Amino acid sequence: MGLFSMPFIPQYKKFTSQGLMNRYNWEAFRWVKDNADIDASVLFLYGDAYGQNAILRNAERTSYLINSNNYADALNNKLVKREYLIRLTGDHSGVRYAYRKSLFSYGYHLVEDLNNTVTKDRDICSFDYYVFDTSGRIQALAQYNLLIKDILVKNDWIEEVFSNELTTIIKNNKPGQECIPDGGIRLE
After folding, report:
1. What does the pLDDT look like over 98-107, one tens digit per residue?
2. Which of 35-49, 64-78, 112-126, 171-185 has the lowest mean pLDDT?
3. DSSP code string of the chain
4. How sure is the predictor about 18, in pLDDT bands with cuts at 50, 70 and 90?
5. Would you kindly state where each structural domain of the chain is located, as residue ranges?
6. What was the pLDDT predicted at 14?
7. pTM of whole model > 0.85?
């Protein structure tokens, strides 16, 4: 006896999807997870997949995300800056987890540590790793990513450590050292 469809009974239909991100971004997240030091800081620059705070947790490192409006403003002003508006993401971004200070008092790391202010101007030279997408919905920002990557790797202590068809990761072996001049670089 064969099966037949009845319009009033819900039917199963197989649905396939690549999910929220493509395999190239996933490869980059896996590379960071498997290769970056556990205490490494990772800056995600413009990328279509990076708009979701939860997705950045896949790197399993302290992740930061560049503010796309501030990033676009710098591009419109034809400037590569040393400081951008950058947001600390993941569980650190605004969650006030308590810890016990004494028998009857609790503290909140986020409130007490001013360096963990969620969004603020941050020195781009202070990060251990940078994740750049080389293509995206806003192609001008993807090209700006490539320009910044090319400027950073001109420093002999910054190197490309991962690349696929969409994503490039570079490592800063001397975080905090001047990688872009203080006044920025004016684009002509």
Report:
1. 667 788 887 7
2. 112-126
3. ------TTS----------SS-HHHHHHHHHHHHHS-TT-EEEE-S-GGGG-GGGGGGG-SEEEEE-HHHHHHHHHTTEE-SEEEEEE-GGGSS---EEEEETTEEEEHHHH-GGG-SEEEEEGGG-SEEEEES--SSHHHHHHHHHHHHHHTTSTTEEEEEE-SSEEEEEESSTTS-SS-TT-EE--
4. low
5. 37-186
6. 45
7. no
Q: What is the per-residue pLDDT across 81-102, written as a single tens digit (0 to 9) for each? A: 999 999 888 554 445 556 677 8
C-beta contacts of 173-180 below 8 A and 24+ residues apart: 175/41, 175/125, 175/126, 175/127, 175/128, 176/123, 176/125, 176/126, 177/125, 178/82, 178/125, 179/82, 179/124, 179/125, 179/151, 179/152, 179/155, 180/80, 180/81, 180/82, 180/124, 180/125, 180/151, 180/152
Q: How would DSSP label each residue in 37-62?
A: -TT-EEEE-S-GGGG-GGGGGGG-SE
CA 33 to chain centroid, in Å, comes to 13
CB 132 within 8 A of CB 148: yes
* Mean predicted lDDT score pLDDT of the chain: 83
